[in-house]
């Protein structure tokens, strides 16, 4: 009795079709970190989707199914030997946001095509710009240094945070890219590419797409790319877990299930997710606490939820579970079963 996911790859196909309908001019680089299952990557490739990788391991996984020209090495701060690996494999498109990264790239991959990642306002709850992105005041020096080092900057990138709850952030970020393009012109750098990052989700995709289209009107003759993850895969998975233990404290039911925050429910900690546990069992509802299977008291899936009276072996499920639900192996528990 192990947890498992049922995967519907056609949900990915449908999401991509909607993307192409709203943003046909924006090429998709799927964010491998979002869900790196081999079957998912293969399906992405069959649709003509390219790949956003953040490490040597992710590049290795993608190279088993796609050419190096399909890869964007999108991490702004890269391990030096990962850059060397990318160079040796022919992965040439990558991101930077600091002068030290430029010197690292000069030493390890001087022929790379570079995107300068800009600091932009992030959606509430996501602090990507606290860690990555060059502020506008630093852009001239970052471009001038690239010219001095004879490195090839071809564009700008940004990330508004994930999931994006404020669609207008995309247009505001693209305005900064427009300013950065003008700065690049003063340094003799022809900008060809704008990377609008990720953060897209099903619930407000059309509103976000409309803001991107507004932003695109500020540019001429530019290639637009994106680092889409969550939007493509979130609805493609349904998680099934089982009740493996039960206690009662007055009217409160305490349940233990065979997955937890050290497994796929890590998304509650790392992705601001709020997965909803559901059951087909009917009956009166009771206040319930749901724990994961590990020995750690922090392994709490739900501190207070209402559920019917459940028995050991009963099944709970969670829909829209395809994005950022990778597992650790703490205490030997991990997700191993995916049914397609």
UniProtKB/TrEMBL annotation:
SUPFAM superfamilies: Alanine racemase C-terminal domain-like (SSF50621), PLP-binding barrel (SSF51419)
Cofactor or coenzyme needed: pyridoxal 5'-phosphate
Catalytic activity entry: L-ornithine + H(+) = putrescine + CO2
Pathway(s) served: Amine and polyamine biosynthesis; putrescine biosynthesis via L-ornithine pathway; putrescine from L-ornithine: step 1/1
GO CC term, one of those recorded: cytoplasm
A GO biological process held by the record: putrescine biosynthetic process from arginine, via ornithine
Keyword terms of this UniProt record: Lyase, Pyridoxal phosphate
The Orn/DAP/Arg decarboxylase 2 N-terminal domain, residue ranges: 10-233
GO molecular function, one term: ornithine decarboxylase activity
Entry EC no(s): 4.1.1.17
Class of enzymatic activity (EC top level): lyase
Family to which the UniProt record says this protein belongs: Belongs to the Orn/Lys/Arg decarboxylase class-II family.
UniProt name for this protein: ornithine decarboxylase
Organism taxonomic ancestry: unclassified sequences, metagenomes, organismal metagenomes
């Amino acid at each position: 009795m192990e947890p498992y996911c049922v995967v519907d790859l056609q949900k990915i196909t449908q999401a991509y079709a909607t993307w192409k309908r709203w943003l046909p001019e924006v090429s998709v680089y799927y964010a491998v970190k979002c869900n790196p299952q081999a079957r998912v990557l293969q399906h992405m490739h069959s649709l003509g989707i390219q790949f956003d990788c953040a490490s040597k391991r992710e590049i290795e996984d993608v190279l088993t199914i796609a050419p190096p020209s399909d890869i964007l090495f999108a991490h702004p701060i890269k391990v030096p030997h990962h850059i060397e690996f990318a160079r040796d494999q022919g992965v040439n498109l990558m991101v930077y946001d600091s002068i030290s990264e430029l010197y690292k790239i000069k030493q390890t991959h001087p022929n790379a095509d570079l995107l300068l990642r800009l600091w932009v306002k992030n959606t509430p709850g996501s602090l990507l710009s606290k860690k990555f992105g060059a502020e506008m005041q630093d852009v001239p020096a970052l471009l001038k240094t690239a010219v001095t080092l004879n490195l090839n900057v071809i564009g700008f990138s940004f990330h508004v945070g994930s999931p994006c709850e404020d669609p207008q952030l995309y247009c505001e970020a693209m305005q900064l890219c427009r300013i950065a393009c003008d700065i690049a012109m003063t340094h003799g750098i022809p900008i060809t590419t704008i990377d609008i990052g990720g953060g897209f989700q099903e619930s407000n995709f059309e509103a976000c797409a409309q803001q991107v289209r507004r932003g695109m009107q500020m540019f001429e003759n530019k290639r637009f790319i994106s680092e889409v993850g969550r939007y493509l895969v979130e609805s493609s998975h349904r998680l099934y877990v089982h009740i493996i233990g039960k206690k009662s404290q007055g009217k409160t039911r305490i349940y233990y299930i065979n997955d937890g925050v050290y497994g796929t429910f890590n998304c509650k900690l790392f992705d601001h997710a709020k997965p909803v546990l559901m059951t087909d069992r009917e009956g009166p509802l009771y206040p319930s606490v749901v724990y994961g299977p590990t020995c750690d008291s922090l392994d709490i899936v739900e501190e207070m939820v209402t559920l019917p009276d459940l028995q050991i072996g009963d099944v709970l499920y969670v829909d829209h579970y395809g994005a950022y639900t990778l597992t650790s192996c703490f205490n030997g528990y991990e997700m191993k079963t995916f049914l397609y």
